[in-house]
Amino acid sequence: MSEAAAKVQPAPPTPYEMLGGEAAVRALADAFYDAMDALPQAATIRAMHGESLAEIKEKLFEYLSGWLGGPRLYYQKYGSVCLGHAHAPYAIGRAERDQWLACMEAALQAVDASEEVRQILRHPMYRMANALRTRDD
């Protein structure tokens, strides 16, 4: 074995792998929308969705799969996505961003995500949620 090959380190696990793969990411998407349904402080963002959350749960699962480092299911099914365009019709300010983040934190707790995974995801999730704001307040 060459010296260069000996120095190659295995890639660190992705958040997808750290969460537990497909079943865990699906459970995370389900828990996210379950939290949105259950948390009174998420009423504003819940009202932005239709009565049934089944389709959006599936889309979030597919999106998170690729975003977390797993199979790019959303891209394979729908092509590239501009989250800004998808959220442009909605009035999203700081309060709505924070409601989304509270639902995601509740979902991560519901699926027993480790503190390490929650720490890894906290800043990127905040950046994503904050970037989707459509209004300043």
Short account of what is shown:
The chain has 137 residues and is mainly α. Helix content is 66%, strand content 0%.
Please, could you describe this protein's structure?
With 137 residues, this protein is mostly helical. The chain has a single domain, classed as Orthogonal Bundle (Globin-like). Helices cover 66% and strands 0% of the residues. The protein contains nine helices and no strands. Helix 3 packs across helix 5. The longest helix has 17 residues. It starts with a helix and ends in a 6-residue tail after the last helix.
CATH superfamily, by name, is Globins
Strand content: under 5%
Number of strands: 0
Helix content: 55-70%
CATH class call: Mainly Alpha
Low-confidence stretches: none
Please give the largest β-sheet.
none
Radius of gyration: 17 Å
End-to-end C-alpha gap: 59 Å
In one word, what is the shape? globular
Number of helices: 9
- Which CATH architecture? Orthogonal Bundle
Mean pLDDT: 94
How many structural domains in the coordinates? 1
CATH topology: Globin-like
What is the H-and-E element order?
HHHHHHHHH
Q: Structural class of the secondary elements?
A: mainly alpha
Family: Belongs to the truncated hemoglobin family. Group II subfamily.
Keywords: Heme, Iron, Metal-binding, Transport
InterPro entries: GlbO/GLB3-like (IPR044203), Globin-like_sf (IPR009050), Globin/Proto (IPR012292), Hemoglobin_trunc (IPR001486)
Pfam families: Bac_globin
